[in-house]
Write a structure and sequence with these properties.
heterodimer, A: mainly alpha, MetI-like fold, two-stranded antiparallel sheet, 2 strands, flat, B: alpha/beta, Rossmann fold, 2 domains, four-stranded antiparallel sheet, 10 strands
């Protein structure tokens, strides 16, 4: 059972940092020469400070709900309570950042705007930010999915056929160490659209780790498992897809999560080197106008988006590998 | 080693089997030299011998997992060239598919033979038969070694094999679990009269289970004697006849005065 006092303490600690930040944002006057613009969204007037406070309230509400839900399960609550001091510190961190970046502007401007300043980017051009986010997402999805499919496919061929292993592995070892973006000039010249060129680069950078780890997993399947499968009536197709591939799943997922990190890097770099859209493009565009708050806004979107994608992949992995001992730590 | 069994009772005939391995130095090692053996339908036969006597090679050849250099193995008129579900094989350990639940491991053979739809109900039957009810959804890492071997036995039996080949299936188990699986094997043998071939290095196990015991000697691996065990079931492990048979077997290995060396096959 979870003690009432520890529940109240954990919940309070989780939300109070953000609420203090919101309260002091409302109370402390701005002394620096900041122009507060009124934005009209859906008939209501919103300033950067109001938007910032809405975000803080939203964060506290999110953690409050998460905390209350986790109260039903002892392990989940323990995990939630462990993060409570961190949440409080984040709120206080935001408060200090707000004071130094916006209220008093002690930090050098325009390079380090406060959190409210960053939110301004979403108020000025919400449609444009969304458009670029979706462009990045499309690019990522196309490149990542194709890369994983090709990677697992080649990995199976390399792991299963010694001849393919002999001829393809050297190619893999040489091309694998080259950062994918180095192919950018060729990709832009040879492929019909910039989008296709960027997809091509992401496919390359995903393909390498997924291929080599899939091949490793297939090759490391114990002989006894194949023999057992053969005495149970397996044909070659069964040996590959019912024995070797499932056995290789842990390695395939290691390859996929490594590839995921590579894909984010390649995605943003490709966008900064000649794409008509995307978060990398948005950063480049904003930098030209010295709109560093927009650069930060794009970075925040990336942080949220990429964490979200990584979390989804982890969920899938956890489900697919539920048969593995000690995976759930 | 006169083998005067009548032909109609014979399920499997091994003739002049020879198998040569290359060892690490490239020298020839004769794992099997001129091995001939007839196995009767429905009998429980054990192959016993010290490590390196070729008993596992012989069993693997019967399964079709190992190709002999010369000689033939014929089962019901058909020469054996490759593994087949009609000869089930239980490995010492590690044969289960870790990514499948107990239930999925047992139904594996039905799926590869494309008969899962028709024989779906068999799965529950065989789970019940080996006493694993309630563990259908468990993964191999969640069950004990003894339970894992029960799964291994059930997933071969579901293919309704003519013959069950057992490669030291109790070798990695503690002695209580071992006795438990031995009784299970006897129960299954009695139940459906399936021919069982057991490879073991445990003399007591061989006496407890077998109708006949094949004794093999190493370098080169060959059959040195075949002993009938005529003790009625259920056999008493400490019984007079049992101990007499034990003494006889120990004499076969020239171990009548000393304890047998333990063999570690991992």
């Amino acid at each position: 059972m979870i003690k009432k006092s520890s529940a109240i303490y954990g919940l309070l600690l989780s939300v109070s940092g953000f609420l203090i930040a919101a309260l002091l944002n409302a109370l402390i006057p701005i002394t620096a020469p900041v122009e507060i613009v009124d934005y009209h969204i859906g008939g209501t007037v919103v300033t950067i400070n109001i938007a910032y406070r809405i975000v803080l309230f939203f964060l506290s509400a999110l953690f409050l709900v998460q905390g209350l839900v986790s109260l039903r399960d002892h392990d989940r609550w323990k995990k939630f309570a462990k993060g409570a001091p961190l949440r409080f510190a984040s709120g206080i961190g935001l408060l200090l950042w707000d004071l130094l970046g916006t209220k008093w502007q002690v930090l050098p401007q325009p390079f380090f705007p406060g959190p409210a300043g960053i939110i301004e980017a979403f108020l000025i051009e919400p449609g444009f930010v969304l458009e670029n986010t979706l462009y990045s997402l499309r690019l990522y999805a196309a490149g990542f999915v194709l890369g994983v499919v090709f990677g697992v496919g080649t990995g199976i061929l390399i792991g299963w056929f010694p001849k393919v292993y002999y001829w393809v592995t050297p190619v893999l070892n040489v091309t694998g160490v080259i950062p994918a973006v180095a192919w950018m000039p060729f990709a832009l010249t040879l492929l019909p659209t910039p989008f296709a060129a960027a997809v091509f680069l992401i496919v390359i950078c995903v393909w390498f780790p997924v291929t080599s780890l899939t091949a490793q997993g297939i090759k490391s399947t114990p002989k006894v498992q194949f023999e057992a499968a053969r005495t149970l009536g397996s044909n070659t197709f069964d040996l590959v897809f019912r024995v070797a591939v499932p056995h290789a799943m842990p390695q395939i997922f290691t390859g996929i999560s490594t590839a995921n990190a590579f894909a984010f890097t390649t995605l943003v770099m490709a966008e900064m080197m000649g794409q008509p859209g995307g978060l990398g493009y948005y950063i480049n565009l904003s930098k030209v106008w010295s709109a560093y708050y927009k650069v930060f806004a794009a970075i925040v979107v990336m942080a949220v988006l990429f964490s979200f994608i990584t979390a989804i992949l982890e969920r899938i992995e956890k489900y697919a590998l539920r048969w593995q001992k000690g995976l759930v730590r | 080693m006169a083998d005067n069994t009548k032909d109609e009772e014979i399920i499997l005939t091994i003739e002049n089997l020879r198998r040569i391995y290359k060892d690490d130095d490239g020298a020839d090692v004769e794992a099997l030299e001129d091995v001939s053996l007839k196995i009767k339908r429905g009998e429980f036969i054990s192959i016993i011998g010290a490590s390196g006597c070729g008993k596992t090679t012989l069993l693997r050849s019967i399964a079709g997992l190992d190709k002999p250099d010369s000689g033939t193995i014929v089962m019901d008129g058909h020469p054996i060239t490759k593994p087949d579900p009609e000869r089930g094989y239980v490995f010492q350990q590690g044969g289960l598919f870790n990514w499948l639940t107990v239930e999925q491991n047992i139904s594996y053979g039905l799926k590869t033979r494309r008969v899962y739809k028709q024989k779906k109900d068999d799965v529950a039957k065989y789970i019940e038969l080996v006493g694993l009810k309630g563990f259908e959804e468990s993964y191999p890492y969640q069950i004990s070694g003894g339970m894992a071997q029960r799964v291994a036995i059930a997933r071969t039996l579901i293919n309704e094999p003519k013959m069950l080949l057992l490669d030291e299936p109790m070798g990695a188990l503690d002695s209580f679990t071992r006795a438990d699986i031995q009784d299970k094997l006897l129960e299954l043998h009695k139940l459906n009269g399936i021919t069982m071939v057991l490879v073991t290095h445990d003399i007591d196990e061989a006496i407890y289970l077998s109708d006949r015991i094949v004794i093999m000697t190493p370098r080169p691996g060959k059959i040195s004697n075949i002993i009938d065990v005529k003790i009625p079931h259920p056999r008493q492990r400490g019984g007079v006849e049992f101990l007499a048979m034990r003494r006889k077997l120990l004499e076969e290995f020239d171990l009548a005065t000393a304890l047998p060396e333990p063999e570690y096959n991992i």
